[in-house]
Amino acid sequence: MFRLITLFSLSLLLIAFSQIKKEFDLQVEIVAKEVEEKPKLSPPQNLPLKVSEPMDLSPRLLEPPKEMEFIPVARVEGNGLSCGKPKDAIAYKFGVDYYLKGDFLRAERELSSILTMPSPYRPMAEYVLGLMKLKEGQRSEALKFFENSCRVPHRYRDSACELYYALNFGLKGSVPKNENPLWSVVYEIKEKKTYREPNCQEVVFKNYCDYVLDFVKGKVREEYKDSTTLRRAILLFQTGKLDEAERVFLEYSKPTKPYRSVALYYLGLIALQKKDTNRAYQYASLLETINREYANSLYSQIAQRDVLLARITYSITKDPSFLELAGIIAYNRGDYQLALSNFLEAKSIKYAVYSAIRMGDYKTAYSLLEGKREKDREDYLWLLESAYWANLPMEEPLKAVKERYPELYKEYLGWSFFRKGDWLSALSYFEDPYYRALCYYNLKKYEDVLKVLRGIDHPRARLLKAKSALFLGKPALARSFLTQNSPEELYLLGLSYFMEGEYERSIDYFKKVPKDSPFGARALMKTGDALYNLGKVESAKEAYWEILKNFPEDPLASQATLALLGMEERELPPGDREKLIKSYLQKEPNSPYAPELKYQLADLLIKRGEKKEAEKILVELFEGNSPLKYKALLKLASIEEDKRNKAVLLYKVYKEGNSEESAIARRELVKLYEEVGDQQSMAELLEGGDLSDKERAMQIYADIKRWDKAQAIANQLISLGYKSPSFDNTLWKIYENTKERNILTALTKSQDINLSAKAKLEMAKLLKAEGKPMEALEYLVDISLNNKGAQVYNSAILEGVQIFLELRLRRDASCFLERVDANTLSREERVKIERLKKELPKCEVR
Q1: What ranges cover the TPR repeats (predicted)?
Q2: pTM higher than 0.85 for the full model?
Q3: Which domain holds residue 203?
């Protein structure tokens, strides 16, 4: 029995086969890597994303009382003047009597006299004075009296307080904090956006309390119909009943309706929940001229969903914060290139640097930081880190931090020596024990590594100690530093047992190393070595073949091939690879790996120009019902010169191959049909592709005037929200030939202002012909607001003027006519406009 002797390294060390010796000659040689590198600093894994929550607009719907409710003033019992009766009591009695008779002038004179003296009647006098001011319409004066009357206990205090709260709400839009069972609820709704049902049993404003109760419940109340209807719609929205809510909001989104901005805002949120971002943008655009706060909130809701939406929102609003948002979304999902481009455009240098470093593009990070005028400590830290990893001169940034940040200067001066391989000099600048240990490790002073890191237990230090112990030939000591918490530690644990000849135990650890980790291929290779040394040759071969299958580009793949095909010492150049494959196939033709090797052999023959030999192998793979049969057909098609034969091969793969093979065959068939000019077949294949392929199919059908097919694909793409400039142009062509209303509706939302204007004008004309002039006007007004500069702009204005005239709205017609673009008028339009201006009244905004 023989054992496989391997030379192996630690961490990122190269594994290479040595020679086969007898069992008693087994030895393990550890080959050290030249350098254990500086640990890389990493920017944050995720950037802070401030998620914008939808606004709750219910508090803005709550209305103040339409009518004031209060406790009536009672007549003071007893006779008039009395010798022993205090003046204030007499004044209050007379004041109340005059008030009840409606003689407010005398009542005010009597009651006001009480305010000039200390009197227990004062709060009641203020209450009556407040009621008089309220009846006279002097609400601000009444507010002051009720506020004072509310401060001390008396028989009318509850009424005075509630009148104070009600007037405060009506005059100032808010309610002071209070403990009243009704008005505390109003305060919480307005100030805290919290909702609880009021207790209406012991309040003065009973009718209003019933309204607030209905408002909280979302129940429609006739005298407050608008606010309660919209509150109900908001609750429907919040409970996911979007269609019911949408119907209500659509009714209130009309220009003449109250709370229109609230309705438009929630319509935007509903559109967003229904993934109709185009409609959400339309509502946000409408809100810009009505309520900027609502518009900005809706834009934020849209933008935070996706990078593309954030960019579209920026293009609409020109607010650079949306560019930064796009960058943050891309960064947090790991698309650092996309994040970098957005951060650069947003001039967010800090985050751009993070993105570049995450990509490993230290030169870009350095360039960005070097060009920054004002730098803080973090800027200099990343500048030095970038200079180190980009292998750029460090003298200038070191000079800049020498006085300002001496600790950075000392550390990175040490790294500058480290980078040059002068680890001895680097030692004198490092204070951190781990960095000092790295220097000793690269100097191959492994005992010093263990001394410096004695008692230090962080993961990097433990790994360095373990590797040093292995280089010292002390696998048991190495294990004392290791846990099972990382792929590298699992690999080193397995390696330590491999050194001791404990192959079964080493395999247990190698198998725990995740295959998708940086140590997956190495652990698999050592598993094969251990299995071979245990005499389990077939199992070892399976391990080596798994390396070839899962890690074809890894340097270990060549070593696995050598292990499989004779344990050769050198990596395989193409010529040797061909010989070894042929030899292996000759010896084991029925091996499960034979199809893959045959395919590789055919590929080598094609590259060398021996197509006939390759064809034989590929046909054999197909006819032998190999798992690679359709992959072989694809390869055959790639070398087939006869276009008809090529088409037959590709079509078979397209129909019978797996999804990946079928997709490749479809792409090749499209190219082939394009070469031979078979547009019908090309379009049919493109229909089965992605959205851009479907668009291309639609264009082809339009070109060959298959309007039914073109229309069907167009409606499918419209329903999916597909957009592109070429798509819109083809849509117009299809519409002109089909008059499909759905296509016209989609064109009204085109990003091309000429196309969208043309579609809106066409829609307006259709609606006018259908007897819907007001709906037609909405499209024409839309053109005047959003499509200035379009070719049909002036035509739309004139069409709108005509509809206003037909509706006998001559002044509105005159005002709409003023929106005409004088710079693009034709002679005929100019004459027509001059005539209209003479006939129409002057536009005056009321």
Answers
A1: 487-520, 521-554
A2: no
A3: 52-67+156-223
